[in-house]
């Protein structure tokens, strides 16, 4: 159920107490478990360690985030990748292309080095 207008937004009071009168640049990461807390304008510039169920994910609050909840920026599920035979082939081709590019770059560097000696 969403919050009605008369209830207002939910901002954790303890979280606000932790940032009152502090400089965002000198303050380190502020750990919190309150994922449902809405980001207010007072929180701009602070870094929050939002708990995702396993670790605290650092979230630097910017202007675009005001009005959103802290939990939106700390995903709880890890996306692995879509798999399958086709995906493996694409990744293998990409890896081979990177290796070829790296070999070409080292060969070009060696040629440039040998031409400087002459």
UniProtKB/TrEMBL annotation:
Q: Which GO terms describe its cellular component?
A: cytoplasm; small ribosomal subunit
Xref: Gene3D superfamilies: 30s Ribosomal Protein S19, Chain A
Q: Does the keyword rRNA-binding apply?
A: yes
Q: Give the domain of life.
A: Bacteria
GO BP field: ribosomal small subunit assembly; translation
Q: Does the keyword Transferase apply?
A: no
Q: Provide the GO MF annotations for this entry.
A: rRNA binding; structural constituent of ribosome
Q: Keywords in UniProt for this one?
A: Ribonucleoprotein, Ribosomal protein, RNA-binding, rRNA-binding
By its UniProt entry, which InterPro entries does this protein fall under?
A: Ribosomal_uS19, Ribosomal_uS19_bac-type, Ribosomal_uS19_CS, Ribosomal_uS19_SF
So what family is this one in? Belongs to the universal ribosomal protein uS19 family.
Q: What does this protein do?
A: Protein S19 forms a complex with S13 that binds strongly to the 16S ribosomal RNA.
**What is the protein named?**
Small ribosomal subunit protein uS19
Q: Could you tell me which species this protein originates from?
A: Candidatus Nomurabacteria bacterium RIFCSPLOWO2_01_FULL_42_17
């Amino acid at each position: 159920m969403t919050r009605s207008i008369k209830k207002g937004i939910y901002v954790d009071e303890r979280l606000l107490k932790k940032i009152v009168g502090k400089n965002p640049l000198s303050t380190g990461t502020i750990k919190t478990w309150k994922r449902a807390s809405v980001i207010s304008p007072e929180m701009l510039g602070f870094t929050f360690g939002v708990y995702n169920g396993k670790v605290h994910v650092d979230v630097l609050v910017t202007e675009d985030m005001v009005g959103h909840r802290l939990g939106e920026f700390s995903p709880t599920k890890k996306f692995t990748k879509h798999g399958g035979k086709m995906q493996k082939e694409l990744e293998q081709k990409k890896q081979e292309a990177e290796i070829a590019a790296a070999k070409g770059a080292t060969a070009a560097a060696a040629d440039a080095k040998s031409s400087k000696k002459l």
